[in-house]
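Q: Here's a chain of 570 amino acids. Please give me its 3D structure as tokens.
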Amino acid sequence: MTDTAAAPSARTSTQPPPQDGPRRSYARMAADESREDYSLRYAPHSFRRWSPTMVASTALGGIAYLADFAIGASIVFTYGFTSGFASILTAATIIFVTGIPIARACAKYGLDMDLITRGAGFGYFGSTLTSLIYASFTFIFFALEGSIMAQAMHQAIGLPVQVGYLVTTLIVIPIVFRGMGALAKVQAWTQPLWIIGMVLPFLVLAFEAPDAWGAFGSFGGTEGAGSGFSWIGFGLGTGVALSLIAQIGEQADYLRFMPAKTETNRRRWNLAVLAAGPGWVIIGAAKQLGGAFLAFVALEAVGKTHALEPIAPQIEALRPWLGSFALPAAALFVIVSQVKINVTNAYSGSLSWSNFFSRLTHRHPGRVWYIFLNLAIALTLMEMNMFAALNKLLGFYSNVGIAWITAVAADLVINKRVGWSPKYIEFKRAYLYAVNPAGFGSMVIASVVSILAFFGLFGRYAEAFSTFIAAGLALVLCPLIAWATRGRYYLARPNPVNGPDVVVADVTATHTCAVCETAYELPDIADCPVQAGPICSLCCSLDAECGDACRKDPTAGPVLMPLPTVRTAV
């Protein structure tokens, strides 16, 4: 297809396509956007009916999880307070900095993490691997949070832990099934109770054990690490804490519903995106340190194993004021916290699996069916007692997660600013190469090298700092490869009507897809030579017979981004 072919903006939703091709009717679940939540698409302005404050509060409600307590306690118990404290703060800084450009892009363009990754250096099929990485993040942390919830139910009512795993899995299904609307209500209704439960234990200890913080500051851990600083302990602890870097993807699943930024809401919009995007890690780091403190206080009373389970330290902290009511109060807090996060884990997992399988199978039965796949894997991990291997599992995962997130952030911050990458996010199959070596190549190289380091191939210090190796390589290689290829693999053909200069009035105008005959806003539409008309992004993704004709037209050719002019100071 040449650049002069009719663009979709030249047709209105009342004009039928000139060619009578095959029509697609989606399954009822996939067609119902009240449940589907535009899982594989751009989130249209007409669907973004929530205020910036509402979107931000819903996104922040999803970080109520207590895995932070367990992770923080595990780091400090293993490496001591000084090294653990430095690890948690360093990881939080890296997560915050890389999360800023990703959060802003998701909120601005109405795209989830998978679609952002496609256009930020990975290509259409290149981002398939990151969908799998993200899906694994959701079911790993669902299993971790579910284990914590099952431990609470076991202590509160004596429910066998294995049965508790099943209960924690089944309880979230009705909420996640109904999509963003139900999630927003659950997060809003449970927030006051969660805040009280979060603050109360620390309030009790402030009066009952005022000297505990001082003793905590000189805590040398339970593994003989000592109270001083250790570079090895710092590196390994940071790697564990950085396993949470993919949390920005779950924040993005909410941020894509942020309304358009205007002069009226500009300040609230910027603040909401900052708070609900990278801002989650400020609360997360505080929870890691707070969880480690509660575990330290409870260590002598309950022992190391139970101190790492958030329910036991909660009970011990509340006991001086609540007495026999400490157990049910702590259990209620833990259960509420875990429901708040696991509805988010299950929801985000369903989006990731939808993206993954739609590209591999060219089928989309609906987001809700992938809820069951994600929960089945999480339940299996719980039954395998993954909680016992917490540090090793999260340390390994963080090598891949940080390589991915850093590569995306590098593209958004560096490549797009200097002109090696398009100024906007192109996510549609019709305009993308299958694989872009800039982002995908940098992530693979960084992941492989850092994993080899993690398993000790390059020595003890490289093993401890494997996540820093992953981040550094991804940060350098992504712009380096983009420069070396002159941005050749970002766009397979021009898209003049979906670029960054399209005005809002054009963006919100609807255009009828020639395949499913449904009207979608302009950013979700591509120009299809096979259908001889506009096609929506999902119908384009699911087409298994077009042979990518739009990208194989020899007259189109690659789109070369101009190299920037380099000026030297005199």
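Q: Can you summarize the key feature?
A: The beta strands are 510-512, 519-521, 525-528, 533-536.
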